[in-house]
Automatic annotation (TrEMBL):
Pfam families noted in UniProt: ABC_tran
Record-level Gene Ontology MF annotations: ABC-type transporter activity; ATP binding; ATP hydrolysis activity
Entries under InterPro entries matching the protein: AAA+_ATPase, ABC_transporter-like_ATP-bd, ABC_transpr_TagH-like, Bact_Polysacc_Export_ATP-bd, P-loop_NTPase
UniProt keyword terms in alphabetical order: ATP-binding, Nucleotide-binding, Transport
Stored PROSITE patterns: ABC_TRANSPORTER_2
Every ABC transporter domain range: 23-246
Record-given protein name: ABC transporter ATP-binding protein
Gene Ontology terms: cellular component: membrane
Amino acid sequence: MGEIAIDVSNVIITYKLMKNFSIQRNLLRRDAEKAEEFEAIKGISFQVEKGEILGIIGKNGSGKSTLLRAIAGVFCPNSGTIDLKENTVSLLSLGVGFKDTLTGRKNIYLSGMLLGFTEKEIKKREKEIIDFAELGEFIDRPVKTYSSGMHAKLAFSITCNLETDIILVDEVLSVGDENFQRKSFTKMETLIQDKNRTVIIVSHNIETLQRLCDRVIWLHDGEIRKIGLAQEILEKYHIYMMAQAGR
């Protein structure tokens, strides 16, 4: 095996399931600690080599986005470790990383600084980011006024033009109009040609993962059901989903 960029070891992530009470009542209830727990990720382990493109697929609720956000450092696992080997990482996901009251332009700088770039470095890429996002005058309007497609365009543009060692992509390659989808896909293909960059892509789109990924993890109910070469795993997943649909 080559140089390791991401090492996930025995990671467990759980959520507390709040009963149908108000937040205040849940906080005040003496038995709040005894709330039922849901184990979203159940002790999984895997490694990703530097320069590898790893896909993650699985039905809704299997823990894909939860795992990706833990790798990005959005939250910590309950147990186990995630070691990024001192690589810089960015997460491309709807609903993550923007301050809604700030304009798109200001969020470019906020996001860039959170990724570890200096204001000067961001300034050099600002026009490129804005041009790629195709938001026109909306770049100087608050992000809370954006549609989900506009949000995705800006997020994609920031992540792909302020390049980190590791890029995590969560279901955003299929967002936006057809022209933007085509452009973002081409941009992603260009980025992953850099063998120093490591990418994890979460998607339901088998064709996308076949085209972009070296290996794929099939995540099922918080566990790794299978992991291996993209073509092999995606064929097995497709057969499984067809069987489920035929029930």
